[in-house]
Amino acid sequence: MPRSREYGIPGRDEPILLDVHSDHQTFRIPLIDLSKYRHADSLSEKRKTADEIVNGFKEVGFIYLEGHGIPSTTSAAFFSLSSSIKDKLAWEDPRANRGYVKIGRERVTQSEDAAEIAELPNQAPDMKETMEIGRDWDKTWRNHWPRESDVLGFKQTMLDFYQMFFEDKINEQRHNLRLVSYPSIKTSLLMKEGQARAGAHSDYGTLALLFQDNVGGLEVENPRTKRFQPATPMPGTIVVNTGDLLARWSNDILRSTLHRVVAPPAESAANTDGNGSGMTPLRQSIVFFCSPNGDARISCLPNCERPTKPPSAITTEEYIVGRLASTI
């Protein structure tokens, strides 16, 4: 297996294991340098990096990607707008999946129980607000843009960011760009049973690319022990994870791993004494969710067949719309 650096302290030459349990089951999120692929002189060199990525998705479902060449951007200007402006851009339909979602409206969940899903937003809503952006040329579903005078350059900046990830083979561009803002709140509120900034969930499409700030709070479930462990921010990296549809295509050879966003470690939280007192700092991130064409039939690929029964076939639209309808 090609060697890659694992999650650890930035600047360290030797890998640091994320956690080591008494049963010796370790959990590594590989740190992979994509510049080796981008500047490779041969197909074999590119294959080495590709193998590292695939192995990371097989073992963990998550990787850190550095050397990607994507410039940073920010969503802070949008979220600083007044509620009266943002509310006019409200999310309306899971088929569109576009617009502003205010704090407390969404609760991501893996549950399939209708009664439980209906009650979750009242019991423990996700403590975040989001802005959902899709392909701007869609004639049926329109993006909800703020006025240029309200946030200068926002539309063009986000369209440029969205287009950056376009792949010719996914010609419908059924992707989704999500801007996320987790407000500063009392840390004690995030310590209540079932409460989180974003509840435990898997992502719906093929891949998710996360650009996070340095606050922290993302936790990934160890596939072996089922314990959640921090995915600490690493400057200059993108966190990339496998989604449900890619897992289905691969007959679950590639993992779609549960993850959540909780209060960051006490030592990184402002004015927090470790006992839940004080405030959890503002956290902002940008997530790019990649999805196949809407009518693409997702079933086990021929080279991924194995003795276990593969997930049932489903179209991209059927799966994603169904998941969205149960969360907002």
From TrEMBL:
Presence of the UniProt keyword Metal-binding in the record: yes
Xref: Pfam families: 2OG-FeII_Oxy, DIOX_N
Upper classification of the organism: Eukaryota, Fungi, Dikarya, Basidiomycota, Agaricomycotina
PROSITE patterns recorded: FE2OG_OXY
GO molecular function, one term: oxidoreductase activity
Keyword Membrane among UniProt keywords: no
Domain Fe2OG dioxygenase: 173-292
Family: Belongs to the iron/ascorbate-dependent oxidoreductase family.
Name of this chain's protein: Clavaminate synthase-like protein
Alphabetical keyword list: Iron, Metal-binding, Oxidoreductase
InterPro entries: DIOX_N, IPNS-like_FE2OG_OXY, IPNS-like_sf, Iron_ascorbate_oxido_reductase, Oxoglu/Fe-dep_dioxygenase_dom
